[in-house]
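Chain A, query sequence.
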Amino acid sequence: MTTRLKLLGLVAAPALVAAAVPAAHAANAPQPHATRAAIAGDVLPGLKHNAARTGSVAAGKRISVAISLTPRGGRALDTFVAEVSDPHSSSYGHYLTKQQFGARFGRTDAEIKQLKDYLRAQGLTVGKVHSGNLLVDADGTAAQLEKAFGTKLSTWKDARTGRSFYANDSAPTLPAAIASIVSDVAGLNNRVQLHHQATPHTVSPHNGPGGGYTPAQLKGGYNVSGTYTGSGQKIALLEFDGF
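Chain A, predicted structure.
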């Protein structure tokens, strides 16, 4: 009987070891991000009604994105902006430096690290983290972006203008813990949407100025001589990016 028990022990021991190895490996292996959440508002409005899908973006095409993060403190930033702009507020004119703004409203370094670690794990290259900890640049191939943001990048043709562009077919998703601090992912589409800025006004036919000055009179009144063409002057265009 004792001999039989020893033999059974010798047979069972390797089996237990063999079963334990995969279990330990599974425990140490990276776990997939099972719970994901969508970034609302990050799909072109009317995309599938106003454009025709023509194919898929080449998997190796490199694309840059900018990930915007929601400020900390809920509506505290809105309150601060209102007070610092109100002449009747004790906070009027008490603006913040970039460092003060980041410390008060920006995401924490731990949250930024969590986002960067995730992006790198998907194969993306993380670029600049802008001052204030509310904007992170990254780039990668279309295939890597599709994996990271859980969406499909397709090529489209605008039904009205005939222009071709690429765009994500569905809202991008991220692990829920990261998605909770992300407000927008810019760069997943390159569609140019033009908007008319002119505001029409109704003109009354019998209205006119009660008086006024001619251009020559204004020129003389301000003692302006010569012709001003604007040459040599510099202007600046303030834009978020070239997406």
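The longest helix spans residues 2-28. The radius of gyration is 30 Å.
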